[in-house]
């Protein structure tokens, strides 16, 4: 075989390898987009069963006001941080400087679309406690713990913003975004606890929609899958994953609490629903669908 023939074969092999590599990269990117929009759909749809169920019952008994209040705050900071990572040239440049091996933030347009939609639905569900005339126990009030979280979060963002503005000890605008991300993670950890505890005290999940949990689980799995895939495509699985602590933490925490809620609904308290603590279908004329549930949970709301 002549040198020219060998050179031709090597060139052809190199071309095939590069072309094959590009095909796999394109396929990976397409799969990532598919995961992203499916998880956006699943997480977005997860809000509606609870909204519809509450409207049908015309009652918010059995629901923790702490959960629904802090949820609004959480999705507000999530939307803001995602928007800044997507569209702020300053923040993206600072991110690239800190993560040279994976300089592009692993944030997609579907993340922002989900945040805007989630904030809107969370706000509507919060309004169901106050402005729709639905039945609510007088003791259903915001706990001091969640009030403290809201105040503390406001102080943290304000302080970080001041440090970044005056460039104290190398603080940058990106640190404000990270602060928003960590606040969202903290809220995600804390927000489920009152509802899970309320279900435990009542020994029932009546009033709490399991369908939103099933959709939430689907979204959590696909969100993590997209993050890992995007990081692998960027050539730095760990750097890209740890560079987006908000998305990583949200997915892991969501799956953990979803597992608890599914265990409460399908295993621990399944018989309570079957015994009919509350009539969740069309009530008879003159009947109060929440009468029995309030006897069980009367003492629970004050501690949420």
Largest sheet features: none
* Topology, number of strands: 0
Order of helices and strands: HHHHHHHHHHHH
Helix run count: 12
Indicate the structural class: mainly alpha
Taken from the alpha-carbon principal axes, the silhouette is globular
Distance linking N and C termini: 81 Å
What percent of residues adopt helix (DSSP H or I)?
over 70%
Radius of gyration: 24 Å
Q: How much of the sequence is in beta strands?
A: under 5%
Low-confidence stretches: 12-17, 274-304
Averaged pLDDT: 78
Written overview of the protein:
There is one protein chain. The protein contains twelve helices and no strands. The chain has 304 residues and is mostly helical. The N and C termini lie far apart (81 Å). Mean pLDDT is 78; it is low at 12-17 and 274-304.
Can you describe this structure in just a few lines?
With 304 residues, the protein is mostly helical. 73% of the residues lie in helices and 0% in strands. The protein contains twelve helices and no strands.
SSE order and pairing:
Blueprint: H1 3-45, H2 48-57, H3 65-87, H4 89-98, H5 109-127, H6 144-165, H7 173-202, H8 210-233, H9 237-242, H10 245-268, H11 270-274, H12 291-297
Q: Which keywords apply here?
A:
mainly alpha; 304 residues
């Amino acid at each position: 075989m002549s040198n020219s023939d060998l050179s031709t074969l090597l060139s052809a092999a190199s071309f095939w390898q590069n072309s094959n590599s590009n095909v796999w990269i394109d396929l990976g990117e397409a799969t990532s987009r598919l995961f992203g929009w499916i998880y956006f759909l699943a997480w977005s749809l997860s809000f509606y069963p609870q909204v519809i169920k509450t409207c049908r019952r015309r009652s918010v008994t059995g629901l923790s006001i702490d959960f629904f209040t802090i949820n609004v705050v959480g999705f507000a900071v999530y939307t803001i941080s995602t928007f800044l990572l997507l569209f702020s040239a300053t923040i993206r440049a600072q991110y690239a400087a800190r993560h040279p091996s994976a300089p592009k933030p692993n944030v997609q347009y579907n993340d922002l679309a989900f945040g805007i939609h989630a904030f809107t639905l969370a706000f509507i569900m919060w309004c169901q406690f106050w402005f729709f005339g639905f039945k609510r126990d007088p003791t259903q009030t915001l706990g001091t713990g969640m009030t403290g979280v809201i105040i503390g979060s406001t102080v943290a963002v304000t302080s970080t913003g001041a440090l970044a503005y005056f460039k104290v000890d190398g603080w940058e605008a990106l640190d404000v975004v990270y602060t928003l991300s960590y606040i969202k993670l903290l809220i995600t950890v804390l927000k489920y606890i009152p509802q899970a505890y309320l279900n435990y005290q009542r020994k029932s999940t009546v009033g709490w929609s399991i369908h939103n949990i099933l959709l939430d689980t689907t979204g959590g799995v696909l969100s993590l899958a997209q993050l890992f895939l995007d990081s692998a495509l960027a050539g730095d699985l760990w750097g890209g994953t740890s560079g987006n602590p908000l998305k990583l933490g949200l997915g892991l925490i969501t799956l953990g609490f979803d597992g608890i809620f599914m265990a409460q609904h399908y295993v621990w308290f399944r018989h309570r629903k079957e015994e009919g603590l509350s009539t969740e279908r069309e009530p008879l004329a003159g009947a109060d669908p929440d009468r029995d549930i309030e006897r069980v949970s009367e003492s629970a709301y004050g501690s949420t």
